[in-house]
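Ticket #4471: structure export looks truncated?
Reporter: QA, pipeline team
Priority: medium

Steps to reproduce: submit the single chain below to the structure queue and open the exported record.
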Amino acid sequence: MSSGQPELGVVCRNCGAEVSAYVTECPYCGQRLRKRAPKLRRVDGEVDLEASVERRRLPRMKRVRARIPTVDIGDGRPWAILAALAGAAILVVVQRGAGLNPIEVGAVVGASPDWWHYLAAPFVYDDLGYFFATGLGVLIFGIGVERRIGTVATAILILATGSLGMLAAAAASDAVVAVGQNGVALGLVGAWAAFARREEHAYEEDAPDWIPVAIAALVLLVLPVVEDAADPIAGVVGGLVGFAAGELASRSRAKS
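Actual output as written to the record:
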């Protein structure tokens, strides 16, 4: 592009690629860039590009940092998120089909269960409404997290937020009874928020709408009020672990 022409590209806030200002979706990753393409203004029968495009220019250093590398996650499907939800669903079917109680399949009961209960408890449910509420949070925010850090890292994050949340719940009370993925769901919300917060500083367009995010986090936080098996400490600790992991990962990606 010659020096006399205006810059017409915009930076995709998802994959960091520079694309035309006249598209509504990124051709590389499918990220929605704007609701509608900008209108073209004609001057003397020709398109006046400089008057048509109002590009929000980023400082050079910010633009370099905004080009966050994408992660290769195979064919693009969120396998870690799907596996977490499918694993919990299968365990519910097995538990009910075999007539097992939650303790037998891994629920955390008391302060000293077997070590494997801390890993299994996030996938144990005795209430389908609880499964639906946390599963929805895992699906909505987990896909965005896995797109940024990949399948393996997301699987590790799921295990870390779930097991550390259960460990904290058991350490806090000798009479705890805890199952389900409220810690995992809040952890993925926290990780997503950490990425979105850092990306929001790098891009001046399409800032995330934080109100739905806050509502989702609040619903998950107050879930223990209506669901006895959803431990509040497990949820808070899972959320903090997820946010810390998201902060570290987003800083690492911004520096690369």
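Status: closed, not a bug. The export was complete when the record was re-opened. Leaving a note from the reviewer for reference: The chain has two domains: 9-55, 79-255.
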